[in-house]
Amino acid sequence: MSAEENRPSADTSVAEATPETKQPPLFQVILLNDDYTPMEFVVDVLERFFGMGRTQATQVMLEVHMRGKGVCGVFTHDIAETKVALVTRYSRDHQHPLMCTLEEA
User: Is the pTM of this model over 0.85?
Assistant: First the structure.
């Protein structure tokens, strides 16, 4: 086979393929209220693990306290799962029963 046979002819057009990327599903990390974890500890968790400022962390803590649960953030599954594990471990290390879970957003 010669090199000329491998070249596209002048009337042949080549279209570039654009790969279709699908966004990964997102999950909400949710804190659940309990009667034992101090409010200040919940604010600390929100600041430490979710990068919230004091005002936003206090608002989310009050939502957890008043409504029974509150959204800490929305992440891909792996990150949400890691945050749930980190919050749970940190809470247990400080002898608090604070529960954290994830739900599909």
Answer: no
